[in-house]
Amino acid sequence: MTTQTQGVTDEIVPVHTPSRFYEVHVGRNILQTAGDLVARAAGGEAAAIISDSHVAPLYGDCVRASLETAGYRTTLLQFPAGERNKRFSTLATLLEQLAQAELSRRDVIVALGGGVTGDMAGLAAALYLRGIQVVQIPTSLLAMVDSSVGGKTAVDLDAGKNLAGAFLQPSVVLADVTCLHTLSKELFVDSCGEVIKHGVLADPVLFAELEAHPITSPHYDDADLARIVARNVAIKRDVVNADEREQGVRQTLNLGHTLGHAIEAASDYQLGHGSSVAAGLCCVTRAAEALGWCEEGTGARVERVCEAHGLPTNTQLDCDTMMRYAVHDKKRHGQTVNLIVPTAIGSVEIRTVDLDQLREVIRLGCGKQ
Fold first, then answer.
1. Among 256, 310, 357, 359, which residue carries the largest CB count within 10 Å?
2. What is the dotted CATH code of the domain comprising 2-182?
3. Which stretches does DSSP call E strand in 81-235?
4. How far is CA 295 from CA 66, 133, 364, in A?
5. Residue 131, phi-psi category: left (phi > 0), alpha (psi -120 to 50), beta (remainder)
6. Which tens digits make up the pLDDT trace of 46-62?
């Protein structure tokens, strides 16, 4: 659905989950009207903006001014940027600051930033006073197309990524694509991993467009990017609506993640999440094709589109290292793992593999070919 609000064209994607209905607004210059949109969706009298040390100086004042114009008493909380700070120690500090700001259950937390911020602020909202409302304002492409939608919140443990968390659907998501102007080229490229994943997962038309015109090229202006973001949100929306708490089909959104998370963790999170997912996606697709699970030629297409976006297509980690990290995947059940496997562009299946089969997938898909 497309609407015109105060001169700003938005794509609005409705999300219907068992726990909450909300809208995802995608467009240009949305930050300036954030206060009105938050008030309409969440209400309350006070708003705590949670952001990191990279994003707060860029957009904190703008969002704070918009919230105050809409009548909110505001607090801006900032934590050090980076995946290494997505820990309980950071969360504990934020919770103490929320208490000091005297937020009530009627009030709202506003997550302003990328995926780490969305996770931290979302989990803080789930825990503070046993749950208050959260609004997601993603500022990275990765957060816009993936982590801001669906209600997953988490922190990392020493054993692996996102191993402690909760589900809390946002009250509204505001994705302003003009924020992407301040994103570094490296972070923009990294974000493309999740966009490609969605094409492989559910949309051959989107995948073909990415093949013909990588979104890292000058072909895309803000309106085109808003359209691409909205399409990605709709893909994730459809899965989340069907399976809010990842008991079944929502697991398919983890395509590329079992191996990708292993690659990411083994790098001590120096390799970005989207880049790790892209490498994991290429690895699992190569293995699936070698095992006869996937349509012939799919692996080559996935590799080419990742390469065209400047993303890695493999890892040099040895099999033992990959196994050590992969067995901590959240989709492990005892001695088996639910592995998401592409069968063709736009189609996937959930395969339950034992640990020996997982090792074979890693052997066939990862490392020097």
1. 256
2. 3.40.50.1970
3. 108-113, 133-138, 152-157, 160-167, 172-176
4. 50, 44, 16
5. left
6. 999 999 999 999 999 99
